[in-house]
């Protein structure tokens, strides 16, 4: 398909000027000619003209007067006028009224003329494209709105508090009920607790259950960036504000305007940055780096930290005034070891999630595996538990996740701290013989689970004969493993 050339209407009462303009333009444009305003208007009635190029001085109607009519009836046509030097002031007076794109002074130069008309053709193309886009957007607006609404509803369902995995007797039940009540109250919330306990999930649930659910939810890890980059991320910057700032940047506060922002690891920020953040929270406005004016923002701030900010404030490492601004309502999220009843349910959920990603379906967790999981203290909380489930899924030979594939530290259910052995002994009850028997039984079971109940290998590792091992297993009720 041959690409159509841009169309231009040349209006000039002098035949020689018409021909000179035609010869100059005909390689790049489809050229129409007219000797006066009436003939030009007739051509415009029947042809699609993108550019009107007219002389100013013509018998009857002047070029500016003609272009006024063109603007009223064919506003999309790009209007250009050519005049002699003596006419320039008259043309300037009519530029706004006639909407003239450009005017050229005689004698015109071919290169200048072509450059001007190529620019006019590009302008005409962009105008037409904008009109098509406007129509498309108007047509698509209901569909886009429906899709946005569907996505918002899907996110709200995904992060709903009742989907947070927990047991009927979990301490998380009271916490989730509290978060549900706070969602409707537009106040700052500070989530505290160890890494991996689900603070971000609670922050998302807070947002999607709040009146701000239709707007953005934005997350920034404050401990991952130095001050200048963190300020740029949150507040934005103007081009040239610092080395490497090659263009303007809209900060996350502006992107979250009307919505919610989670400032994760807020305890890692410097005192200098804390001052700037405090001003933003107090005044409800930001100043991008390098900007001379502030911008108003309306953002609900949820902060999260694994530090004790009150203690940090007393030590002078965190501003107390900022703490009270952030902690209008502090919520502590308990670690996994304080809610062992949740561990089997979370592990099962993670197994289902992993299986769906791998195209597999895993069997229910065995009592042996559940016992190993609940015995571990989980310093990494849910993140660490997820890694263990992924490890077992990767090593599983069938549909069952095996305790034998747990990490050695989890399998032994021993803390990584120096007090692990003392914690183990403290959990044993009875006289010395009873405690030693319980400890021996535990060592035997751990060894057998790790070796997938291969009794020959277990006997070799423990320095026992197979008969001796069997006798101990019978004694401790482990022979059925």
TrEMBL record:
Database matches in SMART domains: AAA (SM00382), REC (SM00448)
Residues annotated as domain Sigma-54 factor interaction: 165-394
GO-annotated molecular function: ATP binding; sequence-specific DNA binding
Keyword Lipid metabolism: no
A GO BP entry: regulation of DNA-templated transcription
Pfam families on file: AAA_lid_14, HTH_8, Response_reg, Sigma54_activat
Annotated Response regulatory domain residues: 7-121
Modified residues (4-aspartylphosphate): 55
Keyword presence, Metal-binding: no
UniProt keyword annotations, A-Z: ATP-binding, DNA-binding, Nucleotide-binding, Phosphoprotein, Transcription, Transcription regulation
Cited PANTHER family: PTS-DEPENDENT DIHYDROXYACETONE KINASE OPERON REGULATORY PROTEIN-RELATED, TRANSCRIPTIONAL REGULATORY PROTEIN
Protein name: Sigma-54-dependent Fis family transcriptional regulator
Organism name: Pseudothauera rhizosphaerae
Source organism phylogeny: Bacteria, Pseudomonadati, Pseudomonadota, Betaproteobacteria, Rhodocyclales
């Amino acid at each position: 398909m041959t690409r159509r050339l841009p169309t231009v209407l040349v209006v000039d009462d002098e035949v020689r000027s018409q021909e000179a303009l035609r010869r100059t333009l005909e390689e790049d444009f489809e050229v129409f000619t007219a000797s006066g305003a009436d003939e030009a208007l007739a051509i415009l009635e029947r042809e699609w003209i993108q550019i009107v190029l007219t002389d100013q001085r013509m018998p009857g109607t002047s070029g500016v007067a003609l272009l006024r009519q063109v603007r009223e009836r064919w506003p999309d046509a790009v209007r250009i006028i050519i005049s002699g030097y003596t006419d320039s002031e008259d043309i300037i007076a009519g530029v706004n009224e006639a909407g003239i794109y450009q005017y050229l002074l005689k004698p015109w130069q071919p290169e200048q003329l072509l450059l001007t008309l190529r620019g006019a053709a590009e302008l005409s193309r962009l105008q037409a494209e904008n009109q098509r886009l406007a129509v498309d957007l108007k047509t698509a607006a209901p569909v886009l709105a429906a899709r946005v609404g569907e996505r918002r509803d899907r996110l709200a369902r995904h992060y709903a508090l009742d989907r947070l995995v927990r047991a009927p007797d979990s301490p998380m039940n009271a916490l989730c009920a509290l978060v549900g009540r706070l969602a409707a109250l537009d106040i700052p919330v500070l989530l505290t607790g160890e890494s991996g306990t689900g603070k971000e999930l609670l922050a998302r649930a807070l947002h999607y259950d709040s009146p701000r659910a239709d707007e953005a939810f934005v997350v920034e890890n404050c401990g991952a960036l130095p001050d200048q980059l963190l300020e740029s991320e949150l507040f934005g910057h103007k081009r040239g504000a610092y080395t490497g700032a090659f263009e303007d940047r809209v900060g996350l506060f502006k992107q979250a305007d009307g919505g919610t922002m989670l400032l994760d690891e807020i305890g890692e920020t410097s005192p200098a940055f804390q001052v700037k953040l405090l001003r933003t929270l107090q005044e409800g406005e930001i100043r991008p780096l390098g900007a001379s004016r502030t911008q108003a923002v309306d953002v609900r701030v949820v902060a999260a930290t694994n530090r004790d900010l009150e203690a940090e404030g007393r030590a002078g490492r965190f501003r107390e005034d900022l703490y009270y601004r952030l902690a209008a309502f502090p919520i502590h999220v308990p670690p996994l070891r304080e809610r062992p009843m949740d561990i089997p349910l979370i592990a099962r959920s993670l197994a289902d999630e992993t299986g769906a990603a791998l195209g597999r379906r895993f069997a229910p967790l065995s009592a042996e595996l559940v016992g190993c999981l609940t015995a571990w203290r989980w310093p990494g909380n849910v993140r660490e538990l997820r890694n263990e489930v992924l490890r077992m899924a990767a090593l599983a030979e069938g549909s069952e996740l095996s305790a034998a594939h747990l990490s050695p530290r989890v399998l032994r259910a021993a803390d990584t701290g120096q007090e692990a052995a003392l914690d183990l002994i403290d959990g044993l009850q009875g006289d010395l013989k009873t405690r030693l028997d319980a400890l021996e039984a535990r060592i035997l079971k751990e060894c057998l689970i790790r070796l997938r109940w291969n009794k020959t290998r277990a006997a070799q590792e423990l320095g026992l004969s197979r008969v001796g091992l069997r006798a101990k297993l019978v004694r401790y009720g482990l022979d059925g493993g």
